[in-house]
Design brief:
By secondary structure, the protein is of the alpha/beta class. The protein has two domains: about 200 residues, Rossmann fold (3-Layer(aba) Sandwich); about 80 residues, Alpha-Beta Complex (UDP-galactose 4-epimerase, domain 1), CATH 3.90.25. It contains nine helices and 14 strands. The strands form four sheets. It has a seven-stranded parallel sheet with strand order 3-2-1-4-5-7-11, with helices on both faces. A three-stranded mixed sheet has the order 8-10-12. Strands 6-14 form a two-stranded parallel ribbon. About 45% of the residues are buried.
């Protein structure tokens, strides 16, 4: 079996390349990454029992045909992933993210390879208490250029699938938390753990403290990808992947169990979505997938990794 993972050195990818072969022992893993974020460390200490092939390059530029040839699945994770930064560079975000998805999907069509496409629950914006994949268009209201482009990517992949030219699906991932070799600290849980460990005040958007939002444990993200491959869920559908729906207050309270006397600094954000809602995993759970990740364990293990970086971290 051969799996191609674009953006394979990133937060999700760097853990996926290690854990996917556990479920598929004979798998060869092709990692495609442009190293723009210089995550060389994600290639350190890979399991010696797995055949890895690293391709350094940008998926919008390199010839994908020989990379995808003979593959059993392409998992497309390559993207710029900072919604806040997308306000300052919307054109670049579209040129990079949408162009990458378009080119990867079309290459999958040419190679006859199924596609797993990573999108985001940030495409939602609703006044309902909860929403799932079967919501109406009135509940799709992206609050950033990043989210708008992710939704556009979804539509492109869906159209190819419904035309019969592509076997694929899109995950709407909640905000990722949890550790990996290519871990980033720009999203809420991870960022707050870093700030707390460094003795810094936690910078909280002033509109967001008690808003409910969807979050995804990294282990659940990896297992969900494994599940889709095992069950061949390449039906052109949208699948939410969310471990928990929690507020920033919940995150702060959890970190406070390990690091006392936390300080909160309220800051303004250009993402001014004041709506509070939960995202449900209706489609994936109907197929029998169980989400297992929890906030407390993820916070504890993240802080453990930082325990010697600063004496504040215990």
């Amino acid at each position: 079996m051969k799996a191609v993972i674009t953006g394979g050195l990133g937060h999700i990818g760097s853990r996926l390349i290690r854990e996917l072969p556990i479920v598929f022992p004979s798998m060869a893993v092709v990692i495609v990454d442009n190293l723009a974020t210089q995550r060389y460390v994600s290639l350190f200490n890979l399991p010696s029992t797995v055949k890895y092939y690293f391709v350094q390059g940008d998926v919008t530029q390199i010839d994908l045909a020989p990379v995808f040839a003979g593959a059993d699945v392409v998992i497309h994770l390559a993207a710029l992933t900072d919604p806040g930064a997308s306000f300052d560079h919307p054109e670049a975000m579209e040129q990079i993210n949408y162009a990458a998805t378009q080119r990867v999907a079309e290459a999958c069509v040419e190679a006859g390879v199924p596609l797993i496409h990573a999108s985001s629950t940030s495409v939602y914006g609703t006044e309902k208490d909860s929403v799932d994949e079967f919501c109406g268009p009135e509940d799709i209201s992206p609050q950033s250029p990043y989210a708008e482009i992710k939704h556009k990517e979804e539509l492109f992949v869906k159209d190819l699938c419904h035309s019969g030219s592509l076997r694929g699906m899109s995950f709407r991932f909640g905000t990722i938390f949890g550790i990996s070799p290519g871990m980033r600290f720009h999203t809420a849980v991870n960022k707050f753990c870093w700030q707390a460990a460094m003795g810094q005040p936690l910078s909280v958007w002033n509109t967001a403290y008690d808003q409910m939002r969807p979050y995804l444990d990294l282990g659940d993200a990896v297992r969900a990808i494994q599940f889709v491959i095992q069950h061949q869920l390449f039906d052109g559908g949208i699948y939410n992947a969310v471990s928990i729906n929690i507020s920033v207050r919940d995150v702060v309270d959890t970190i406070g169990r390990y690091i006392p006397n936390l300080k909160i600094e309220l800051v303004d954000s250009r993402i001014m979505n004041t709506l509070s809602y939960r995202v449900l995993n209706t489609r994936l759970t109907r197929h029998g997938f169980l989400f297992q990740g929890g906030l407390d364990e993820a916070v504890r293990t993240t802080l453990q990794q930082l325990r010697n970086a600063n004496s504040v971290c215990v």
